[in-house]
Amino acid sequence: MQDPICKMEVGVDARFRSSYKGKTFYFCSEACKQRFDKKPESFAKG
Ligand SMILES: [Zn+2]
What is the pTM of this model? Predict the structure, then answer.
């Protein structure tokens, strides 16, 4: 999986994750998750 914010590779066991439109996104850190949660529509492509 790839962190949509910073493009870092993260495992499916990543602690930080969000669901958006039925998809689950994984993040390397709380900071990346918070950025996603503010504006998911600008990161959740594809
Ligand atoms: Zn990240």
Answer: 0.88
Q: How far is the CA of 21 from the centre of ligand 1 (A)?
A: 20
| Cβ atoms 6, 12 nearer than 8 A | no
| 7 CA distance to ligand 1 middle (Å) | 7
Could you report the per-residue pLDDT of 1-46, keeping only the tens digit for each?
999 999 999 998 999 999 999 999 999 999 999 999 999 999 987 5
Do 37 and 18 form a contact (C-beta atoms < 8 A)?
A: yes
